[in-house]
Amino acid sequence: MEEHAEALEADLLRYYGVDLLDWHRETLSSRRLSVLVRHLPPDSAFVRAREGEAAEWGLTDHLLAAVVDHLAIANWMYASVNRDEYADPPEAPVPVPRPGAGAAGTPEGAGPSATDHTPTAAELARFFG
């Protein structure tokens, strides 16, 4: 919290009308401050400063990126199968870049990484259920 104190202070004022100095004045309990910080929305400055671009991606964004990738692959496969046998093969599609992809020497968008928040099977089942 100390690392992003300015963003936190701005968010507490913006979303809750609470001054962070109230905690120092002992008119805001540590428990209440903790609850407010944990429940800041994903578009808050504090969450964005802490999590970076990954905070902007929700389940819907990941599902849409997967749909785009699968459609591009299907089109590429169709074009590959139906091309003239002497023609150059079409270039393979490039996946939609995801937050956190491209780290640790992996190509941008090549697949999930440790910081990529891809939806779990339970989240997908809940979404489609």
Description:
- The protein is 49% helix and 0% strand.
- The longest helix is centred in the middle third of the chain and has 23 residues, at 59-81.
- It has 129 residues and is mainly α.
- The model is unreliable at 103-115 (pLDDT under 50).
- It has 6 helices and no strands.
- The chain starts with a helix and ends with a helix.
Concise account of the structure shown:
This protein has about 130 residues and is mostly helical. It has helices at about 5-15, 20-25, 30-40, 45-50, 60-80, 120-129.
Topology:
Layout: H1 5-16, H2 21-24, H3 30-38, H4 45-51, H5 59-81, H6 121-128
Helix and strand element order: HHHHHH
SS-based class: mainly alpha
Q: Give the number of DSSP strands.
A: 0
Characterize the biggest β-sheet: none
Spatial shape: elongated
Helix content percent band: 40-55%
How far the N terminus sits from the C terminus, by CA atoms, comes to: 37 Å
% residues in beta strands: under 5%
Integer-rounded radius of gyration: 22 Å
Q: How many distinct helices?
A: 6
Summed over residues and divided by their number, the pLDDT gives a mean of 82
- Contiguous low-pLDDT stretches (5 residues minimum) are 103-115
